[in-house]
Amino acid sequence: MEINEIKALISLLDDPDPEVQVHIRDRIVQEGRWMIPFLNEQIESQQDDLEASLLIQDIVRDIQVKGLGEELRNWIASEEKDLITGATIIARYEYPDLEETEVREFISRIRQDVWLELNENLTAFEQIKVLNIVFFDEYGFSGNKEEYHHTENSFINKVIENRSGNPLLISMLYMSVALQLEIPIRGVNLPNHFLVAYMDENGIGKEVDGKDEEIMFYINPFSRGAILHRAEIDSFLQHLDLKPEPKFYQACTSEDMIRRMLNNLIHAYRKNGEITKAEELSRFLPSIPAE
After folding, report:
1. Measured between alpha carbons, how far is 187 from 162 in angstroms, rounded to an integer?
2. Is the CB of residue 234 less than 8 Å from the CB of residue 243?
3. What global pTM score does this model have?
């Protein structure tokens, strides 16, 4: 489509016929993100016309949400299902200009600082101790207990900026650093909480834990990397009056984590009275396989 055709199409949004407006709006949204610069240019030229500007801003928003849905479906279809990619896609819901490279570069810096303190003779517990010192003491990450349900706790760029977040996002960053160092950590999708597990690669898990042979121990990144065992999870579930289920103790998938991230955001938006945003994100859920 030529530039003149694009501008002519956008100008038709001023058509007095509502049916024409709807048709043009749908056509622009269907064209996708490459239309956004032209729409922003139109907003700049119509600053004195608030109604027209708001209409175009809504169209830009529709394009962005549609694009996120497509990105998320592509992520689900990918073999890697990389967590950082998935978390960045979700964060673009509020921060559309966020670049994944910004997030990856930050994680790589933490990884480098941890790597400098590691050596091949360290035990699993000693590895985690080093990771905890760098992640929590040197970089200052902590669980956000005061504003637990704030939406910023679920956006990876804001968690990096604020150095605090909810259990899922803190665990996700912690796990991403560990995996870059080949420390075998996976997420554990508990009710009302999220942990990570140090996976057994040497066949000694049964000796350490007694029941979950694939897991040596659990880690609570929301509480500065505290080490936990199955008994603590048993007590936690008992406190919630929940019957223990195998999935509460086992490593979860990347899809589980992204689905939970969306559900956390939907809950936070509803709690804040931002129903439209909650409904927009709810439309993404069917594309993510449930556990």
Report:
1. 22
2. no
3. 0.88
